[in-house]
């Protein structure tokens, strides 16, 4: 059996930009990508805490340590700068891998700088 499991996430990131006239994707600060284990061109799910919108897109790297979180293309209609979002990526694993794997969960501050990296949910 193959299971779809949480691979990594960036929790409560602040949207810094929304660029409608772009082909599509989400731009994420390269430091945040590396900390969460999210790769360039990887599919991610975006959950908007402000309006409940959920969408899927792919990732392009942004400038390291810039704090950029920019929704591009049609996704820009589902967010506003200042919105809090959760960026989630998943991986397919067999049951044994799933039992051993520890996801990377990155908590950020208002400027999208890392506060905490853990492998479990944390109530902030």
From TrEMBL:
- Where is this gene product found? Cytoplasm
Cited InterPro entries: Asp_de-COase-like_dom_sf, Asp_decarbox
User: Which amino acids does the record list as binding substrate?
Assistant: 57, 73-75
- Can you state which reaction this protein catalyses? L-aspartate + H(+) = beta-alanine + CO2
Q: Which GO terms describe its biological process?
A: alanine biosynthetic process; pantothenate biosynthetic process
Enzyme Commission identifier(s) = 4.1.1.11
Pyruvic acid (Ser): residues carrying this PTM: 25
Q: Which GO terms describe its molecular function?
A: aspartate 1-decarboxylase activity
Q: In which pathway does it act?
A: Cofactor biosynthesis; (R)-pantothenate biosynthesis; beta-alanine from L-aspartate: step 1/1
Provide the cofactor list for this protein.
Answer: pyruvate
How is the cofactor bound, in the record's words?
Answer: Binds 1 pyruvoyl group covalently per subunit.
Q: How is it modified after translation?
A: Is synthesized initially as an inactive proenzyme, which is activated by self-cleavage at a specific serine bond to produce a beta-subunit with a hydroxyl group at its C-terminus and an alpha-subunit with a pyruvoyl group at its N-terminus.
Query: What keywords would UniProt list here?
Result: Autocatalytic cleavage, Cytoplasm, Decarboxylase, Lyase, Pantothenate biosynthesis, Pyruvate, Schiff base, Zymogen
Q: What class of enzyme is it?
A: lyase
Q: Where is the active site?
A: 25 (schiff-base intermediate with substrate), 58 (proton donor)
Record GO cellular component, one term = cytosol
Q: Which HAMAP family match?
A: PanD
Regarding protein family, the annotation reads: Belongs to the PanD family.
Task performed by this protein: Catalyzes the pyruvoyl-dependent decarboxylation of aspartate to produce beta-alanine.
Subunit structure as annotated in this protein's UniProt entry: Heterooctamer of four alpha and four beta subunits.
Protein's recorded name? Aspartate 1-decarboxylase
Which organism is the protein's source? Answer: Aminipila terrae
